[in-house]
Write a structure and sequence with these properties.
The protein contains ten helices and twelve strands. By secondary structure, the chain is α/β, with parallel strands linked by helices. α1 runs parallel beside α10, α6 runs parallel beside α7 and α8 packs antiparallel against α9. The radius of gyration is 20 Å and the shape is globular. The two termini are 35 Å apart. It binds adenosine-5'-diphosphate (ADP) and magnesium ion.
């Protein structure tokens, strides 16, 4: 099997260059926290910050930078225009870099108040086609057609990625989520492909579930799920459901992979415009994204140092922002994480 997202070779001195796309809303403040934490953790990463405004050249430059560095950390870029000709730059980046799979590991943090406890679900989402093909048109007045694109090649890659992930991480079951009873051709192909790939992994159980039943099961009996695979839009919705079950938009991070590039970002991909600049955004989702990025680059010790400091802060000391029912400011949480990094027994340097 081909390795997904080739890992860039470190620059002189073992440092990596990483593209930072702060995006809109709370993105810039969260990136500021990542930089602070990296400074105290001594993480060997240099950020190339690319602001994406409204110019097309901004997007071009961002893509050039990611292609050069191989890895990016990203906030959500707001699409202000509702005109059909203005495409979401978030989608454009994923499509242009062929980041065909999104991985969201939804694992409960003990000690963080949540609707469900001890959840450990991995959502693996097709990330570049399906309902996000952006092929919509008005065929005649008052009739809109919107195309959902499912291909054998991408369904195959996602399914293979999921089973390989399950195998490498000691997971027991993969569930394909679909609506093949209605969308017989598109979801039918996605489902059939995953069944075919499943045959190569007899040690991993495979089953499937219709998306509507899946939503009910997730809310009532979420512990039955292990690894899940699905097309793009179901992935977006299911990701938000599971994040909501275990702590909301501010807690988890997501990973986007292609054969050549990787992008790390908060799991629910929200802009958080309404809470920007108020010092209340939960910094954990973006910090987790930065931990995942360090692991991807092979800086395992730095990743663990930061991860442990996060866990100590939110699980043991229970320093929580308002979204988790706490009263701490974003900066209180970050300060505590930095204190915990500085007090850690084992440091990578
Ligand atoms: P979208 O970008 O899809 O419009 P929003 O930005 O409105 O979504 O975010 C959805 C919800 O999640 C909002 O209530 C927002 O306040 C909340 N949210 C998103 N990110 C965070 C965060 N880091 N900390 C706390 N709340 C967050
Ligand atoms: Mg918003």
């Amino acid at each position: 099997i081909k390795k997904v997202a080739a890992i860039p070779v470190a620059l002189y001195g073992g440092r990596h260059a990483v593209t930072m796309l702060p995006g809109g809303g709370i993105g810039p403040e969260l990136m500021g926290y990542v930089r602070e934490v990296f400074k105290y953790a001594g993480a060997p990463v240099d950020f190339e910050v690319v602001e994406i405004g409204d110019e097309n050249t901004d997007l071009e430059y961002a893509l050039t930078s990611i292609k050069r560095n191989g890895v990016a950390i990203k906030g959500n870029i707001e699409t202000k225009s509702e005109s059909a000709s203005v495409v979401s730059r978030n989608v454009a980046i994923r499509n242009e870099l062929d980041l065909f799979v999104n991985v969201l590991h939804c694992k409960s943090y003990p000690g963080v108040p949540a609707r469900q406890k001890d959840i450990d679900i991995v959502i693996i989402r097709q990330n570049t086609e399906g309902e996000y093909a952006m092929l919509e048109h008005e065929s005649v007045d008052g009739v809109i057609e919107s195309m959902k694109v499912v291909t054998t090649s991408n369904s195959d890659r996602v399914a293979r990625f999921a089973f390989e992930y399950a195998k490498k991480n000691g997971r027991k079951k993969v569930t394909t989520i679909h609506k093949a009873n209605i969308m017989k051709l598109s979801d039918g192909l996605f489902l059939e492909t995953s069944k075919r790939i499943a045959k190569d992994y007899p040690e991993i159980e495979h089953n499937d579930m219709i998306i509507d039943n899946c939503c009910m099961q997730l809310v009532s009996k979420p512990h039955q799920f292990d690894v899940m695979i699905m097309t793009n839009l179901y992935g977006s919705i299911v990701s938000n459901v599971v994040c909501g079950l275990i702590g909301g938009a501010g807690l988890l991070s997501g990973k986007n992979y292609g054969d050549h590039y990787a992008i790390f970002e908060p799991g629910t991909r929200n802009t958080g415009t309404a809470i920007a600049g108020k010092n209340i955004a939960n910094p954990i989702a973006m910090l987790s994204a930065s931990v995942a990025m360090l692991k991807h680059l092979g800086h395992t010790q730095h990743a663990e140092l930061i991860q442990r400091a996060i866990e100590k802060t939110i699980c043991e000391e229970k320093i929580h922002t308002p979204d988790l029912g706490g009263t701490a400011k974003s900066t209180d949480v970050v300060q505590r994480i930095i204190d915990n990094i500085l007090q850690a027994d084992i440091r990578p340097w």
